[in-house]
Amino acid sequence: MTDLGEHLLSTRDVATFVARGFLAMPAVVPEDLNLAAIEELGEILATWGSDARPHAPSSGQRLSDIYPAPSAVGTVLRHPPVAGALRSLLGADPVFDHDFVHHKPAGDPFGQPLHQDAMIDPTVAFDVQLFYFPHEVAPGAGGTGFVPGTHLRRVHETDVGRYVHVAGEQQWAGPAGSVVLFHQGLWHRGMANPSGTDRLMYKIRLNPTEPQVRHWDTSDLDALHNGPDDHLFARFRTDSVAGILRHREPWQGEADHRLELAARASLWRYLTGDDRFDVDWYLTRTEARAALS
Amino acid sequence: MMDPATQRQQVLFLYLEHSGLDGRVVAWSFHDGSGRAAELDGSPPYPTGTAALRDGWRLLQVSPVPQRMPGSERVAGRLEHELLLERIVDA
After folding, report:
1. Mutate: best of B12, B13, B78, partner A, most A CBs <10 A
2. What is the pLDDT of residues B27-55, one digit of tens each?
3. Which of A280, A276, A274, A264 lies closest to A19 in space, CA to CA?
4. DSSP label at A199?
């Protein structure tokens, strides 16, 4: 197994991913590799669905085995900061689910309805979707739209397409070589591209094959990981995981936010193996009372 | 009544942060049968549901207050506090 020590995510990074459902790594891929990837993605797009497609992986193949050298896409996926982030969230040996090259031509007026990929999914264990933007994406120039904090809501595909605008929705814009990691459940959509520049994006979905427990750089975990009594209505810390998980998105009212806190706390329990973890006592009080009856 | 020869319907979905009509708007969708404006810009058209009423929109439907199902009380999904409003405009 490759030693990715210095490239693993921090506890703060992973807690932010749990709270918001995404993690952005701007300009993480070097420019020479971006140029090679743009060329290869063009070849993949041109041959999509045919036997001529280079490096076509199969669902269930190990990430370490797909897009073998000298594939530029494979080099991106094995680029240490990218591989370290994937290892941190998925564990050592994730497998390929599917991928696609998303090309939004200049002037394309069509956008997708808001959706969650695949289908409604009740598991706490999660897939990661990696979005790679090999060239600069200017604001409003067809970058992927996404709604932070929606990843833990159980909805099915385009059932949420009625929501044309959601407060806090973001549209990706950033430098060449940016990678954005999505929790599988994050609501997102392809956007129109009114700009004069084509937009290319590569997306790959990966499945974990082992419990996603403490695979990141946990050297800061003891300092940040709070006890179940970190409670905003009693005694609380702001420099704790709970403090990070309390982040509130603009679309969340009070009732929504509390349900999200419970869902985030449950996910953090899974990621750390600490089944006593809590944010604001919501899980703890109910579990303690349930044990009485 | 709407005269389809001369009039069209505009439809506005508003999603509020709680079940009261004075709740803050957190999501919205606008559809214009007159074809004049396919979309609003990126800012909420009204700060609350009642602000839309004051501006002449007619409320057609509002979501019932949510009832959490036993066994899945904490499961969140769709946005729950939906107002469906209409306005009749000249074609």
Report:
1. B78
2. 999 998 887 655 556 689 999 999 999 99
3. A264
4. E
In a 13 Å sphere around the CA of A26, the CA atoms on its Cβ side amount to: 7
> What is the predicted ipTM?
0.94
Chain B CB contacts of A260 below 8 Å: 76
| pTM of structure | 0.96
Give the minimum alpha-carbon distance from A149 to chain B in angstroms, rounded to a whole number: 12
- Taking any CB pair shorter than 8 Å as contact, residues of chain A touching chain B are 152-155, 159-160, 162-167, 250-256, 259-260, 262-263
CA distances to A21, A64, A147, B37, B85 from A87, in Å? 17, 11, 24, 47, 48
Between chains, do B25 and A167 touch, taking CB under 8 Å as contact? yes
Nearest residue of B to residue A147, measured between CA atoms? B27
pLDDT digits (tens, 9 = 90+) for A173-182: 999 999 999 9
Contact flag B29-A256 (C-beta cutoff 8 Å): no
CATH topology of domain A5-207: Jelly Rolls (2.60.120)
Per-residue CA distances from B17 to A169, A241, B26, B30, B83 (Å): 16, 26, 6, 18, 11
Taking Cα atoms as reference points, which of A140, A131, A146, A145 lies closest to residue A196? Answer: A140
Instruction: Evaluate whether A113 touches A33 at the Cβ level (below 8 Å).
Output: no
**Residue in A closest to B26 by C-alpha:** A251
The answer to whether residues B29 and B84 touch, using CB atoms and an 8 Å cutoff, is: no
Q: Where are the domains of chain A?
A: 5-207, 225-290
Please name the residues in contact with A24: beta carbons below 8 A apart, sequence gap of 6 or more.
Answer: A172, A174, A178, A179, A180, A181
Interface with chain A: mutation pick from B10, B18, B26, highest number of A CBs within 10 Å: B26
Residue bearing tokens 């814009």: A173
Domains of chain B by residue range:
7-90
CB A39 within 8 A of CB A73: no
